[in-house]
Amino acid sequence: MVHMDIAVIGGGASGVFAARILKAEGHRPFIIEKGKSVGGRLATRRIGEGKADHGAQFFTVRRPEMQRYVDTWIREGIASVWFGEEHPRYMSPFGMNQLIKHAAEELDVILRERIIRLETDGEKVFLASEDGELYVADAVIATPPVPQTLALLEQSALELPPETTAALAAFTFDPCIVALIELEEPQRFGPHGLQDSGLPEGIDKIAANDQKGISSTPVVTVHMTPEWSRSHYEHEDDDVLSRVMELVRPLLKQDVKTTQLKRWRFAQAAHTHPKPYMQLPDYPIYLAGDSFLREDDTSGKTRVESAVLSGISAARALLEKTK
């Protein structure tokens, strides 16, 4: 068996689980992540003495393969059922980011490194970073949101068929603006810490992180709707936060201590791909992510599970090519 060096661009759920599969088969994957931590949209941030999930608030499971991972996490105390019996909503009592940090513990991860160009000599793939580093790999799995991957490919020394470029350009994403609000005293939102109905127009949902069980102090996460987020995305932070507070303040029964703002430009795919990965023609480069859905996925929606399964599928497809 030939042991390959495989570069995985992106340290979200797709990238981490792709790397886990590759490492389990004896290869040498290394994750290159532009941020300061793995996790992607499984994101948790400290605010004051507390903390808040400000990306995915929970995840659901439809596939037995994903359920096996979740059952292991529950036994290890990394995940738990937040609420729901027939279709449980799972969360991490330590914050959603800890799920991916836990999954990536034994992987090689390079943080704060942005890849800006790919080249190949027919045998190896060369990855150039914004900081001038050059990485060499036998294959690449790219897991950023497709618009970011397409931008990378367009500035790389690769020749792509027009139909491939068109297929990638068809992917569209909705943004999400998120406000984190630290309160002076606790306030309940819904029976479990999540309210997604009866809200002012523009607010998608509100999560109380202390009620959820991840924060020692009262911190509320406010997710704005895709439409509201799109219309305000390019505004200055102070203006956006002020407008969010105008909408949410009538719902707050407690005084506000501090506030923060987070923007997700590619929060939810409006267009998904009906296969769990894509290989670029003539190159050992695979694309994966939550917007690549398995053929039998009838939900049509991106989610944590689709990200995990896409990364696994891309890794297995790469392994199949090496047999």
| CATH class membership of the largest domain | Alpha Beta
Structural class: alpha+beta
Q: What percentage of amino acids are in beta strands?
A: 25-35%
User: In angstroms, what is the radius of gyration?
Assistant: 20 Å
Strand order of the largest sheet: 7-2-1-11-18-17
Indicate the overall shape.
globular
Organism: Alkalicoccus urumqiensis
Protein name: Deoxyribodipyrimidine photolyase
Keywords: Lyase
GO molecular function, one term: lyase activity
Feature tags:
28% strand, Amino_oxidase, five-stranded antiparallel beta sheet, FAD/NAD(P)-binding domain, Polyamine Oxidase, Chain A, domain 2, alpha+beta, 2 domains, single chain, Deoxyribodipyrimidine photolyase, 323 residues
Write a concise synopsis of the structure shown.
Keywords: Lyase. This protein is α+β, with helices and mostly antiparallel strands and 323 residues long.
Describe this structure in words.
The structure is a single chain. The termini are close together. Helix 1 (13-24) runs parallel beside helix 9. Strands 7-2-1-11-18-17 form a 6-stranded mixed β-sheet, with helices on one face. It has 2 domains: 5-36 and 111-171 and 271-322, 3-Layer(bba) Sandwich (FAD/NAD(P)-binding domain), CATH 3.50.50; 173-269, Polyamine Oxidase, Chain A, domain 2, CATH 3.90.660. The longest helix is centred in the last third of the chain and has 19 residues, at 304-322. The protein contains 9 helices and 18 strands. It is α+β, with helices and mostly antiparallel strands. InterPro entries: Amino_oxidase, FAD/NAD-bd_sf. Residues 86-319 form the Amine oxidase domain. Keywords: Lyase. This is Deoxyribodipyrimidine photolyase.
